[in-house]
Amino acid sequence: MFEANKAAQIARERRAYNITVLGLCETRWTQSGQVRLNTGEMILYSGHEEEDAHHTEGVAFMLSHEAQNALISWEAAGPRIIYASFKTKKENIKLNIIQCYAPTNDKDEETKEDFYNKLQTLCDKLKEKDMTILMGDLNAKIGSDNSGYEEVMGRQGLGKMNENGEMLADFCAFNNMIIGGSVFRTQDS
């Protein structure tokens, strides 16, 4: 999104597919804030906080009018995590959406652990009764062998689980989440 007119192009695509909350990765925007486009969409963004930071990484949400009306709060958590909370039709239950851009498998262990520690700190703030969706580019390959992770994932993945896949599966198991096309927190019976 660091290129001219890229936000407007993405807004057109969001409307064409009628997406209410669109998560974006690699926005390459620095700092954090919100911007309203001429077309009415709102962008909530989170990037590197330093003023002279390189235009790398970055995450954002693009919200429709409906999503803007339901928005309760949001939090920028650096260039790899942004979170927003929305009202639902069910009283006292919120929809929490966490947009991520996880480090790639070849990054050092400390970088990946820092990412998952920040993600865990955020998840610890969320209420179990609320619905939580973890989405974005998690840079993880979970594979088709779900041995030891039967409660977390099915067998629809391809290939073998990589290190990032194991970190994601462990995170989901710890937080009572299920890996699907996205990651969802299950509700206790």
From TrEMBL:
Transmembrane segments: none annotated. InterPro entries: Endo/exonu/phosph_ase_sf, Swc5/CFDP1/2. It comes from Ridgeia piscesae (Tubeworm). This is Endonuclease/exonuclease/phosphatase domain-containing protein. The lineage of its organism: Eukaryota, Metazoa, Spiralia, Lophotrochozoa, Annelida.
